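Pilot study result, target chain (486 residues):
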Amino acid sequence: MKPSNPRLVIAALRGGAGKTTLSVGVIAALSKRGVRAVPFKKGPDYIDAAWLSFAAGRPCHNLDSFLMDRETIRRSFARHALEGDLAFVEGNRGLYDGMDVRGSHSTAELAKLLDTPVIMIMDCNKVTRTAAAMILGCTVLDPDVDIRGVILNRVAGSRHEGILRRTIEDTCRLPVLGAVPRMKDFPFPERHLGLTPPPEHERIVHALDRAADVAARYIDLDGVLAVAQQAPAASAAAAIRVPRRKKAASGLTVGVFRDSAFQFYYPENLSALVERGAKVVEISPLRDDILPDVDLLYIGGGFPETHAEALAENEGFRASLREAADAGLPVYAECGGLMYLGDSLVLGDRTYPMTGALPVSFAMTDKPQGHGYTVLDVAEENPFFRVGSTLKGHEFHHSRILSIDLERIRFAYRVKRGAGIDGLHDGLCRNNILAGYTHLHALGTKEWADALLERARVCRQGWSDTAHYRKPTDSVQEMHLIPAQE
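Predicted structure:
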């Protein structure tokens, strides 16, 4: 990061206060003014990161001190902050909410690690002077957290706004940088993971324009930029780039599912494959007739349950994937990808056939079956990871297993933290498939990309001789790391 590069963190008192929608609006509004914001998301979040990415027109990178070490976070932040005029970090949950009583891995700890000023989003619903008490509490709980301003959200009217402004500015000695009214027509519907993902939003361009208009009208954008410009000078050493890796995977093709059903990928994971020389191509089990010829298949998370009928109806694609997996194609899958590889998915009173590459059936539930960070011990032989190693990841799933044939399948991981598949295990293995509920980040699991590509290299000759699926054609697009606004 350039020593003069402005930067800020947007935080709140709790989750659901409006951080993401206002952050999207500010980034989109600044973009219209010619300010190139580089977005970051604190925590292992895909959906908020996708919206920030669409608003900025560039990838949003996740920063997570549970998954990554501190130096890796600093280097990633410094490297990508060079790409624009403003480094914009959206926090998660409440400012001080972490994994223990000390707030470990909280937004506050990240702000201190990056030596970055904080602007608080205050949800003002049914509160007046108490808002000042809450903001004041945040300033004194840890004086090393550099809180520089407040944006009021869900304000009831001009009188309400006046009281809030005066009490916060007089009591907390902080500027109020905006007051956003309650709005019934704000076009950001939610689902159980938060906002509806951009690929499933019917009018994404309209939503971004509306968010930008709201930010331009109700938020002091010049004041926000002024806070960012007050960030202390960064160490020039932090901007040293990591040496480029040798392109050991040259000639390998990695297929990645990417459509409205499967969309949860950290940009660092895709970049790690490309930086090692692999060609990454997009595949859609919704649109494509058959699985193309690839050396490795990476299926991320998403919402196969909202596309179950369309996925089931694409019988040719399902059959070709099952045939490839049976022939030994290396497949790595997470969460939604795990579900798609199973025999079937049950939604209410309907059962939808999936690929059948794994002898397991799933059902959706109303309540989360696993939510939060995971720690896994690699306990059994598997296609990618060394037995005895430990992996850190994240899970969030509303599905559970209905049936499983343990005579034809095995578990790779023993769960030390988290829910996994059955509370004790995660990571189902068959042939060269490894599929589990845990999502891994390439910067936290540094052996991830090398492990996947090495298995693909070793297996390539053995299974390609018997493969019956086509070579990539013009209908298979090379992966773009920035979502297209279509």
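One observation from the pilot: Residues 253-464 form a domain with the Rossmann fold fold (CATH 3.40.50.880). A full batch analysis is planned for the follow-on phase.
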